[in-house]
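Cytochrome c oxidase subunit 6C
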Amino acid sequence: MRRLLAKRMKFHLLGAFFVSLGCAALYKFGVAEPRKRAYAEFYKNYDAMKDFETMRAAGVFESAPPK
C-alpha cells in the first residue's frame, strides 16, 4: 500500500498525456487539415467583386444601392 497514490498517479498522467496527444492528432488531421483544404479550394476561384455585385443587385447593402 505504500506509494500507491504516486504509482497510480504516474500511470494515469501518462495515460492522460497519450490520450490527449491522440485527440489532438485526430482533430488536426480529421478536422483542421480538411477545413484548410476546403477554404483553399473555395478561395482559389472566388471573385469578391462578382459576389459584391450580386449582393449589391439584391439590395443587401444600404451604402451601395442597386443599379
